[in-house]
Amino acid sequence: MDRKTFELLEKYMLSCMGDSAHDKDHIYRVLYNALDIAETELDVDYDVLICACLLHDIGRKEQFENSKLCHAMIGGEKAYSFLIDNDFSRAFAERVKSCIQTHRYRQNNLPQSIEAKILFDADKLDATGTIGIARTLLYKGKVNEGLYSLLPNGKVSDGKNDVIPSFFQEYRYKLENVYDRFYTDRGNEIAKERQKTAISFYNDMYKEVSEPYNKGMKLLEESLV
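Predicted structure:
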């Protein structure tokens, strides 16, 4: 891919970014992870891969405004239209569209091509480790959701069976479960390296917020007449 083409795609990507948890820096991390993974795979079409990485989240705005919409499906259609309008071949646009529409973690729409599998893994890596935790905290703050919820007895829930959205609920529901089903060996290797830091972060935070409740509630009860 020549620099002029890259800059055209990059400019369009930047015009679509608005979500702090899925911002331009997320895009670049996904792209760089994808290029790292691609070095260990055979017969990768780098033009398709780079284009798909740059444009994979351009449907986020529509999903944020209407949660019933799927950003992957919308993003694939938007990417296809943009590429056709800018004189890319239909075959190329279709391959990019397919990568984007299968990058989301869904059982009924799995990536097929090596480029799609690399994008899937690279995007999923940005939900692992401490970077995945940081992005989740950013998003929870933006939508005004808390760090944790309380159990009926007033103690801090670990998030496992929560219905109320919170960081702990998201960690137990999603973040601690993202370390399986990577399509590439390199993606799996990076994820496993990051897993232990994420576990440590969650355990330390849970301890730091639950211990004051456990001790403080008892002390408060003793001090009230």
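Summary: The chain has ten helices and no strands.
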